Amino acid sequence: MGAGIAGLVAARELRRAGYDVVVLEAANQIAGLATTTVDADGFSFDMGAHFITNRLAAEIGVSDSCRVVRYYGESVWIDQKHRRYPVGLMRDPAMASSALRAKVCRDDDEPRNAAEWFRRSYGDVLADRVALPLVEAWSGVPADDLSPAVGGKIPSSIAETIWLRVAARLTRRAVAIGYCNERPQSASVFHVYPKDGVSSLCRHLADELGPAVRTESPVEGIVVQDECAVAVRAAGELLEADLVVSTAPIHVLPRIVQGSEALAPFTQFRFRPMIAVNLKLSGRGLLNDVVVWTPRGTPFFRLTEATQSMPWLAPEGKTTVLCDIGAEVGDAHWAMSDDDLASLCIEHLEQLVPDASRRFLGVHVQRVPLAYPVFRLDYDDHRERLERQDLGVANLLSIGRNGAFAHVLMEDLYWRTRRVLRPWTAPAAADSQRAATRA
Predict the structure, then answer these.
(1) pLDDT in tens, 34-67
(2) Reduced to 3 states, what is the DSSP secondary structure of residue 316?
(3) Cα 199 to Cα 125: distance, rounded to the nearest angstrom
(4) Contact 160, 34 (CB under 8 A)
(5) Is the bond preceding 86 in cis, omega lying within 30 degrees of 0?
(6) How far is C-alpha 229 from the geometric centre of its chain's CA atoms?
């Protein structure tokens, strides 16, 4: 269910293990959120953040069509100054001493929430001034009400980050830092970008699957008998199935399942909506870094000037600055017109780019209702159950960023999908599953 990257990878892995597969996509095109739009002015916009590494490109088979990304860096705008992450922050005596105390005086008890996790990991000063305001901005929930697993999704220690940034400078490649939990980081794993946009990864996978991919085929129900998934209703047709792999948002999946209430607890899960305001501007290198985090004082919590990494995303001499605003569907920001959102962002961007209004060329706005999973404590036990794929219904898996309810990017998504499917795709397991099906 779903022809985004997770669904297509799952189908390919199952087919390679010898299964017949059908991919059902409700929309009239594949790729889902992994799409790229090019406007009439030649500006290119990705739907969401898609970090692709040379390792992932090789696995999917698109290495030959990828450009190497030469640079990537992050800074924090705090006290009207840019501080490079992480070294610049550690030059602040209060942050450095607080972080050191946190390491020396480590509490052995498990942190009860995200606020405790960040304070223990980074020290009170860095946590309270930078990390917690950002976590709350993209979650829309106080950090005391969030699971400590929010912090656990950040795979890089400060020391490892520093080493990998040094390696990036020496190799003149944007070494991937903090974007994959499933595979080790190293100086040999770096960012690339497909010449035809991120959706080319999905097109390559779909081409391999051929007519097995069916667009305009919305799933109307998953038929469950004796707590086992046995069929799918889609576009008026009943398809018997030995395994159903869903990429539907996990809080929607229970409404699709027919014949079981086992997934009912997942209906309470929530996602944070996001507004992506892409400002088209004249000039290049307007921000201090590719990504600038703004913990306080602005309607956006993150700015991204992607052309610093990937100059081909805008016409020569022009750039884009993406302003990410956490929102709720129907709130004041969500209801603003595109032009008003542009004016709001320009007004606050001038703290960092004083002549931003003079450079303004236009705006491209994307409203994403399901942007970030919100790891609330009140359903954390069920989130852990989902991580174990303990859905309560046999032969039903929930994968993908929204289906697995996980803060994961594209490479992590790829390896995680393969790991979840391993009981079905490993040679011995595949033979056993097929024998059980025949029986």
Answers:
(1) 888 899 999 999 876 678 999 999 999 999 999 9
(2) coil
(3) 41
(4) no
(5) yes
(6) 28
Question: What number is the average pLDDT over the span 346-366?
Answer: 98
Other CB atoms closer than 10 Å to residue 81's CB: what's the count? 11
Q: Which amino acid, residue 5?
A: I
* pTM for this prediction: 0.93
Beta bridge partners of 237: 234
From 13, 33, 29, select the one nearest 21 (Cα to Cα): 13
| Amino acid (1-letter code) at residue 334 | W
| pLDDT number for residue 172 | 95
Query: In whole angstroms, what is the distance from residue 395 CA to residue 244 CA?
Result: 6
What is the SS3 assignment for 200? helix
The whole-angstrom separation of Cα 130 and Cα 101 is 17
In degrees and rounded to multiples of 5, residue 44 shows phi and psi of: -110, 135
- Whole-number Å distance between alpha carbons of 406 and 95: 29
pLDDT of residue 51: 84
Beta bridge partners, 181, equal none
Cβ(268)–Cβ(399) below 8 Å: no
Q: Are 333 and 341 in contact (CB under 8 A)?
A: yes
